[in-house]
Structure formats: structure tokens, C-alpha cells
Amino acid sequence: MQEYLIAFGREPEFTITELAATARRFALPLQWRLVGKTVGLVTGELSEKFLDALAGTVKVAEVLTEVKVSKEEIVSFLSSQLEQTERCEFGLSWYGPKLPRWLMPVGLSIKNQLKNESRHVRYVTSRTPVLSSVVVKKNKLLPPSGYEFFLLPEGDKIIIGRTIWVQDFEAWSQRDYGRPARDARVGMLPPKLARIMINLAEAREG
Questions:
Q1: Which of 44, 87, 142, 193 has a beta carbon 3.0–4.6 Å from 120's, enabling a disulfide?
Q2: Sign of the C-alpha dihedral, residues 107, 100, 169, 30?
């Protein structure tokens, strides 16, 4: 059974409950547990339709392996994943509590190693340890040709995943800015919160 890493949005508690409720609506027998405050490890099959129905989940990665907390092991494994193509774009997202110093040069080490093999490599970075959904999508880091590696420390190991889905930020932005004018007396829920509430109610389509 495939394992996935799921990055939650600003309200992890809502997101976890929404995930469970929506899985029931889609009749998906998922098993999951929290790993840290903002990431869940899910076992089961996730459909794109199911993911698109969620409002609180921002990113999903397919688990590839677990390695020891070692720069050398991480560089070796990630390089092996990128060896399949002559030209590639990749980025790293660290979902731990604090970015360790030894991890900072990992991306450049991989890039330099592959460039020495006459490969065309572009390493996408950000000012923060986690690449946003916008950065991932606009820099084409999703499959089949792009790679964003999702790094999650757990104990003395690091779980490594490859991001396969990010929230459709453009669609959510359109819903937000394209909604009717807000009524100061009645008020209006933000689109994401409204969707979460619908999913929590386990409303069935149709």
C-alpha cells in the first residue's frame, strides 16, 4: 500500500478532520498519523478528484524511502532519483522544526555533481525551508519531469517523498477575488473555510 506525506494548511486541526470526513465521503479506507505539527503520513490510495475536493491540504508527496540523518546518504539517494533524465528541475522542502546547517549545501552538491556529468540541471530555491505551492507549480517541479523532494525528519531518520500534487492556488484565488462583494452586516466566509465546512458536514454530491 502506497504511503503519502500530506502538508496541512494554516489550521492543521481543521485539515485533519476535513481529510477524515472527505475520505469517508469518497469511501477511501485511509490510515494516517501525524508526524510533527503540520504533516500527516497517510497510507492508502489517493485520487486526484479526492485531493481537489480538499481545501485545507496544500501539498501531497509520494513516500520514496527513509534514510539516516546524513548529508552523504541524502545526496546519494536524491542524485540517483535525478539520474534518469538529461535535463531536470528540482527543489528541496524541509518540514522539520529547524533547518540543520548540514542540509543547506545538499541541493548545490547535487546540482554540481550532475553538472559534472554534463547534465542540464536547475536547482530551485526559496527564502524559506519549504517551497510554496506557487513556487512548485510555476517552476514545473511536479511530475513527470520536475522534482520537489519533501524531506521530513522523524527520530534518527528522514522520510523522503516526491511531491505529486499541490493545491490549485489559482482556482482558489479566483474564487476569493471573484466572489460577490462582502456584506458587512451578514458577512461572508472565505471560500476555503466554506469548503472545509461543507466537507466536514460530509455533504454528498448531488
A1: 87
A2: positive
Q: Judging by DSSP bridges, how do beta strands 87-94 and 120-124 pair with one another? A: parallel
Contacts of 70 (CB under 8 A, 6+ apart): none
pLDDT value at residue 175: 56
The domains of the chain are located at 3-200
Q: Does residue 152 surpass a pLDDT of 60?
A: yes
Residue 87, phi-psi category: left (phi > 0), alpha (psi -120 to 50), beta (remainder): beta
CA separation for the pair 51, 148 (Å, rounded): 18
Measured between alpha carbons, how far is 107 from 123 in angstroms, rounded to an integer?
7
- The amino acid sitting at 11 is E
Q: Is the pLDDT of residue 58 over 50?
A: yes
146-154 vs 157-166, strand pairing mode: antiparallel
Beta bridge partners of 122: 89
- List the CATH code of the domain at 3-200: 3.30.2130
- Calpha distance 134→58 (Å, rounded): 10
Which residue from 148, 150, 79, 91 is spatially nearest to 124, judged by alpha carbons?
91
The yes-or-no verdict on residue 148 having pLDDT over 70 is yes
